[in-house]
Amino acid sequence: MDTSKNILLKSLFIAGTDTDVGKTYITAGLAVVLRKMGVDVGVMKPFAAGDAQKKGYKSEDVEILSSAAQTCDPENLVNPQFFLIPASPYTAWKKLKIKPKVSTVLSSFKKLSKLHKVILVEGMGGIMTPILKDYYITNLIKEMKIPTVIVTRSKIGTVNHTVMTVKMCEKYKIPIKGIIINDFESGYPIKDLTRDLQNLTGIKVLGSIPFIQDMSDASLNQIFKKNIDLKLLLK
Fold it and tell me: Is 56 annotated for ligand binding?
């Protein structure tokens, strides 16, 4: 049964409060859930960095996302730019002399948007990761004209990072769909953290995702349907 007709969601930018907060796995899980609901979902990671894979997409993150969405879109659309050092696009530019191509990223996003009903765009690092001088992830989201989901973690310090991330989204007038907590390390009790984040930011916590060992379709679909408020996300 195709339930996609009832879904109003267009595209989402999955942003993080920091690096290594689990954006890729949250994006992958959302891609699986949407696909299982009958939605034609595409994925994108505008900028990726690190060691290149020998097979498939250069970026392991892009490989994970494409597998979750079961897409085989061209690499130059899904990941327009890849840097061979683990750094922000700005730092990679200065070190490798390769300038980040924002216009290419935006045109790739438009092309992908014509190929799929929904595009899940995974960010890089935190929301103020620099791409160019005075141009950050926030600027990119703003130019894409899509809302964001903020991925945060459960460890101590996350309240500070999450509040700052929300404040920057507000400054750039970026709509926030909600917050997802990645509960894969010791820290705050999730109930307390959910209460505090909602009270402090006024943004709904969509749910929390436990550490995932089984990355199969069935596992991701079950975990995300159980732990994420999909109705609120898809409004």
Answer: no
Is 188 flagged in the annotation as binding? no
> Mind listing the pLDDT tens digit of every residue in the chain (235 residues)?
344 444 447 899 999 999 889 999 999 999 999 999 999 999 999 999 999 999 999 999 999 999 999 999 999 999 999 999 999 999 999 999 999 999 999 999 999 999 999 999 999 999 999 999 999 999 999 999 999 999 999 999 999 999 999 999 999 999 999 999 999 888 899 999 999 999 999 999 999 999 888 889 999 999 999 999 999 998 8
Q: According to the annotation, is 185 in a ligand binding site?
A: no
Q: DSSP per residue over the chain, as a string?
A: ---GGG----EEEEEESSTTSSHHHHHHHHHHHHHHTT--EEEE-SEEESSPPSSSSS-HHHHHHHHHHT----HHHH-SEEESSSS-HHHHHHHH-----HHHHHHHHHHHHHH-SEEEEEEEEETT-EEETTEEHHHHHHHHT--EEEEEESSTTHHHHHHHHHHHHHHTT--EEEEEEEE-SS-S-HHHHHHHHHHHH---EEEEEE--S--SHHHHHHHHHHHB-HHHHH-
- The annotation status of 20 as a binding-site residue, yes or no, is yes
Kindly name the residue from 5, 10, 36, 45 that is annotated as catalytic: 45
CATH class of 4-234: alpha beta
45 is annotated as an active-site residue: yes
